[in-house]
Amino acid sequence: MPKIADNLTQVRRLIQQSASAAGRNPSDITLLAVSKTKTAADIEEAYQAGQRDFGENYAQEAVEKMAQLSHPDINWHFIGPIQSNKSRMIAEHFTWAHTVDRLKIAERLNQQRPAHLPPLQVCIQVNIDADEAKSGCLPTETAILGDAIRRLPRLHLRGLMTIPKEGSGRKPFEDLAVLAHSLRRDGLCMDTLSMGMSADLSDAVAAGSTLVRVGSAIFGSRA
Ligand SMILES: *Cc1c(COP(=O)(O)O)cnc(C)c1O
Predict the structure, then answer these.
(1) What is the dihedral of CA 19, 34, 149, 152, to 10 degrees?
(2) How far apart are CA 182 and CA 186, in angstroms?
(3) Which range marks the domain in which residue 21 is found?
(4) In whole angstroms, what is the distance from residue 198 CA to residue 194 CA?
(5) What is the distance between the alpha carbons of residues 168 and 160, in angstroms, rounded to a whole number?
(6) In the chain, N or C: fewer CB atoms in 10 Å?
(7) Phi, psi angles (nearest 5°) of residue 99
(8) Atom 5, ligand 1: which residue's CA is nearest?
């Protein structure tokens, strides 16, 4: 079996095991294959193994790879920091954006989302451990931003995303789940918790993740 297909099988198995251990249905968890810095040929290999959701961090790099692949059923997810001057490329080429953390960017994506496409599926990136070095809005700012995004017709608010400090275990994931629960109770419709990467997938699934973003465990380590 080719390496990427083999890795995908193992990651899917780990998701199943983590879900079972947590008493959850594995089909409630989407696997996002993070293909940043990897080639279109690598993506093609994962596609042939059944993978349909791919995550990219750099808009320009992603659009170049999209042009080399001719699969209309791939869902492209933008998961890198969103700079103002890259928002148009994201609005025009991606299905999802996981890293919306301020109103200005949400408004630009809303304006720039082409009319012939469905609304852009959006997660709010939350800086759950209030790490100075990281992007994401603070937990206390999330309700106001969520309420604003809900009013933008070309965006569809799907949920929350976070990247906790490495090695911080289950706690930040549980905190994000609690935050999502309280926002839903206050009337925000959301069905997605985008959390968990190669190293902490099991903790994230245990805490309620519905979408894990996995790069190196599928494609190998990055240069
Ligand atoms: C690179 C990246 C990932 C994947 O990380 P791995 O450790 O390779 O699984 C997930 N999420 C985001 C936001 C990333 O930038």
Answers:
(1) -120
(2) 6
(3) 4-219
(4) 13
(5) 18
(6) C
(7) -120, 35
(8) 215
CATH number for the domain including 202? Answer: 3.20.20.10
**pLDDT tens profile 166-180:** 889 999 999 999 999
Distance CA 33, CA 123 (A): 17
Q: Please write the tens of the pLDDT for every residue from 83-100.
A: 999 999 999 999 999 999
The structure's pTM equals 0.97
Domain count, the chain: 1
Q: Dihedral (C-alpha) 51, 41, 209, 22: value to the nearest 10 degrees?
A: 60
Average pLDDT of the residues of the chain:
96
CA of 108 to the centre of ligand 1 (A): 25
* Ligand 1 atom showing the smallest separation from residue 221 Cα: 8
Looking at the DSSP assignment, which residues form a beta bridge with residue 30?
Answer: 211
- Is the per-residue pLDDT at 73 higher than 90? yes
- Please list, in sequence order, all residues whose beta carbon lies within 8 angstroms of the beta carbon of residue 133, skipping any fewer than 6 positions away: none
- How far is the centre of ligand 1, averaged over its atoms, from the C-alpha of 198 (Å)? 7
Q: Which residues line ligand 1 (CB under 6 A)?
A: 34, 36, 57, 79, 163, 197-199, 213-217
